Amino acid sequence: MRKTHSYSLCLIFLLSLVGCSSTQETYDRLPYQIEPLNENSSKRMVLRMSMNNDSLGYSELSYSVTDDSILVVEDTKVLVDGTVLEEKIVTVLNADYTVKYNEITGSYSGFPIDVVYNWKDNQVVGYSKFPDHPNVPVINVDTIAAKHFERMTSVLFFPLLLPNYDEFSASYSQFNTQSGGFNSINLEAKSNQVFGSASTNVNVVNLSGGVAEQILYISNTKPREIIGIRFKKLPWEYDLIESN
Predict the structure, then answer these.
(1) CB contact set of 32 (below 8 Å; sequence gap of 6+)
(2) Which of 50, 72, 217, 238 could form a disulfide with 229 if both were Cys (CB 3.0 to 4.6 A apart)?
(3) pTM of the predicted model, to two decimals?
(4) What per-residue string of b and e applies to 203-222 under the rule 16 or more CB within 10 Å gives b?
């Protein structure tokens, strides 16, 4: 009886180990490993955009997680030197965080923006166009590309999901749906950094390569949020003014 009992305990222990390992996601279809969000979680952040202390507008970033997808949205309104940009970027990710769909709507100086892309496995199909703009050609894309991030989520969403910020680094391919092209991006993260006049302790993510190289300042507490963004070659600044 004693041997049977010991065997049963060992079997239960081994099965529990197998069960635990089988439910872990490795996210091996992504360019780097992430720490996934809890199911049904959501977040909204509003960042004030300014240049030389003058307010330019705002960017509202939100995400919501369901059992089979993640919806990430950036809604931006900016006024610079009389030029108005209103842009809404919607990206849908699959349950494994690979990209499924992206669309951009809005207008730039009165010209409507029309961007739509779909992903299936490694195939990217879609177009980017300003229908009424006389000098901007239509860009059509139908290509095969392994492991990459869509631009908006690679900049504003995935940096919130790093497994750690202690000297973390990665290089990856980024697809810009507005230009229809790929960029090589380098990411370097550090923890326990200081941000702002209040000397807030934050994580820092430095993105180089591609369009608008930038530094993100990310909260230590979860769910993580973007506290500020600074651009390396532009005098623009983003600062968090509201979140829930």
Answers:
(1) 170, 172, 187
(2) 238
(3) 0.87
(4) bbbbbeebeeebbbbbbeee
